[in-house]
Design brief:
Helices cover 17% and strands 24% of the residues. With 294 residues, the chain is of the alpha+beta class. Among the domains are: 48-104, 2-Layer Sandwich (Alpha-Beta Plaits), CATH 3.30.70; 122-205, Alpha-Beta Plaits, CATH 3.30.70.80; 225-276, no CATH class. The strands form four sheets. The protein has a four-stranded antiparallel sheet. It has a four-stranded antiparallel sheet with strand order 6-7-5-8, covered by helices on one side. It is globular, with a radius of gyration of 21 Å.
């Protein structure tokens, strides 16, 4: 089956409202940045490419397995009901409950914090899709005649390069490149940093170009949000009350700057409840801790 790619809104319907695009690059279906695309970007490796898709409903485990059977692999989450996927050139989409498909545009893959028309080379973090091998990552940068700056602490799939704005634009035209953003000053100075992989959902990490994951806890325009909390599995080596006081102090600081109220909850697992757990290995969310320092 041949697929025609058109730009779409990767958002669900909220209270009957029109679907909205929750990407950082634009928010309106009439935005000229939403022009259609009909072929993959430059590719270093033939046979696969990357695509944004939106399902009619959130697929369950059986739906994800069916995608894999058809040569479609989910890489990251794009709420609502959207995903970044790796697709074989001849993958079969026939009969799948997919509403829309689109190729990511280069402009979506460039952070808004990048300095435009900058002729001077500065440090940038280049994030590649998770299925791109390190040899292909480095090969693309070599193909673009860019210098790789080795730094400890980078996440897998991240490389640090010196590039000007024109070179960054060319990088974003590669299918294998997921996102490009300016390196923080600490990294440029060589200071040690701890990398964060980003927001996590039940479907995996949320893609970098997502501006937000939903309309909020209470729906559009409904503030402040009210969250409840429960404590379970206290730390054996620290006084339970001291631990609770520190966490409640952090919540109070959060409430000081955003419109969120925290109240004690009745039981863990309830809707709108933050379950605060200290645990090892498997702890119920499908993402087990795997040991010290891992």
């Amino acid at each position: 089956m041949r697929v025609v790619f058109v730009w779409v809104l990767l958002a669900g319907m909220v209270n009957g409202a029109e679907p909205r695009l929750w990407l950082k690059s634009s928010s309106s279906q009439k935005d000229p940045a939403l022009a259609s695309s009909s072929s993959p970007l430059k590719r270093r490796k033939a046979g696969t490419y990357h695509l944004l898709v939106q399902f009619e409903n959130k697929p369950g485990p059986a739906g994800i397995a069916e995608l894999r059977n058809r040569g479609i692999r989910v890489l990251s989450h794009v709420p609502e009901n959207g995903f970044v996927v790796s697709v074989d050139d001849f993958a079969d989409f026939e009969g799948l409950p997919i509403k829309w498909t689109t190729l990511p545009r280069p402009s979506q893959k460039m952070s808004r914090y990048l300095v435009a028309d900058n002729p001077r080379r500065t440090l940038h973090v280049v994030e590649f899709h998770p299925d791109v091998s390190e040899s292909d990552q480095r090969g693309i940068l070599v193909d673009e005649s860019l210098s790789i700056v080795e730094r400890p602490g980078l996440l897998a799939g991240h490389l640090l390069v010196e590039a000007d704005s024109e070179e960054v634009t060319r990088l974003a035209q590669w299918d294998e490149v997921a996102y490009v953003f300016p390196a923080p000053e600490e990294m440029a100075d060589g200071r040690p940093m701890m990398a964060c992989a980003g927001a996590l959902s039940n479907f995996g990490f949320i893609a970098q170009y997502v501006a937000r994951s939903s309309e909020g806890w209470d729906g559009p325009g409904q503030n402040p949000a009210l969250l409840r909390y429960t404590f379970s599995s206290p730390l054996p080596d620290l006084p339970a009350e001291a631990v609770k006081l520190e966490i409640l102090r952090a919540m109070a600081e959060w409430s000081r700057v955003v419109r969120i109220d925290f109240l004690p909850g009745e039981h863990s697992g309830a809707s709108g409840n933050v379950d605060i757990v200290f645990a090892r290995e498997e702890h119920g969310d499908g993402f087990p801790f795997d040991g010290r320092g891992k």
